[in-house]
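Next comes a single protein record:
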Amino acid sequence: MEFGLSEDQRMLQDSLNGTLERVCPLERVRKAAEGGEAMADDVWTALTELGVPGMIVPEAQGGLGLALLDAALVSEMLGRHVAPVPFIATAVMAPAALMRAGSMAQQEEWLPKLASGEVVASVAIAEKVSGAREDAGVTASGGKLNGKAWFAMDFGEAGLFIVADMDGGLHLVKGDAKGLARVGLTRIDLTRSLGEWQFDDVEAEPLSGDTVGALNAMRDAGRIMLAADTLGTGWMMIDKAVAYAKERKQFGRVIGSFQAVKHMCAEMAAELEPCRSLVWYAAHAFDEMPEEGPLMAAHAKSLTSDVGRFVARTATEVHGGMGFTDLLGLHYWFKRIGLNRQLLGAPERVRREAAVMQGWAAD
C-alpha cells in the first residue's frame, strides 16, 4: 500500500504556506518576538479565516472535523514559518480533552468558541507528562484548585485553561477566575507563549469522562504536533542553508561548490526526511490505530527532537558567523527546535516511556 497525502491535504498545505508567506514574513516574526506579543493577532486572524483553529473540532460544533494527520500538516507549516500564534494547545490538545472527557454541556459551550478562534485555550499537563518538579503541581479538592502549573502552553491570551492535577484529573478554568494568577516564564523561543498558572482556591469545572484516556490523548497529540513543527522548522533551516551556500563566495567560488559544505547539506536532508513518514504514521495511528498511537507518538517526538537539534546546529554552521546574527533571523528557527525538544518530555524521558510500553524496561 502506498501511504501518502491526498490531493486535498496537499492543497491544504499549499494554501497555508502561501498565506503564511504573505502574512508572516521574517519581519513580522521579529516584530512579535521583540515586542513581546503573546500572539500575532493579524496572523491569527488569517489562520482563523482558513479554519485552522477548528481543524479537529467536529463539524457539529463548528469545526472542520479533520484528522490529526491534517493538523500535523498545519503544524509543519507553522513551524516552517515560526508563526507566533497559538495552535498546539488551542487547536489540538484542548479539543482532544473536551471531545474525550468533557460533558455535552462543556463541549457545546467551548468547542464552537475554540473552532471559531474566539477563545484561546492554554493547557498545563507538564507535571503529569514531564515529571514532577519542586514547588510545582496542582491539587483539587471541593471543586477548587491550589498550587502551581508550570510550562502552560499557548499561555498569553488564553480565555480557557485545562489543567491536570497530581492525581490525573482534568479541570476547566476560565481565564478570569478569581484567585488565578498568571506569571510569564523567561524562554528562549520568543515566538511561543509559555507561562505559570498559580491557583489559590480557584473554582474549577472537572472533566468527568475518561480523564485517563483524555490525558494520554493530549500528551500523544501534543507530541506529534511538536514533532511536525520541528519537521517544518528543520526543513526551512535546510532550505536557508542551501540557498546561502549557493550565494556566499570564498576563494572566488560559492561555498556550495566545496565538498564539505555539500556533505553537510546532504546529511541534514538525509537525517530529517525519514522523520516525515514517522510523523505522518504517528498522526495516522492516533486516529486509526489507537493501540499503536502512544508508542508512535513517543518515537516521532524523540527522533525529531534529536534530528532537529542536529539540523539546527549544522544549518547554522553552514551560515558561518552570519548564522548567529539577528540579521538573518536564523536563531528563531534554532530556538523553536530547542523548545520543541523539551516540551512534553525530553527525548531521553520519552524513549524510556517507549521502552516501558514495549516491555524493555520497568515502569
Notes: The chain is about 55% helix and 15% strand. Residues 7-115 form a domain with the Butyryl-Coa Dehydrogenase, subunit A; domain 1 fold (CATH 1.10.540.10). The chain has three domains: 7-115, 120-210, 212-357. The longest strand covers residues 144-153.
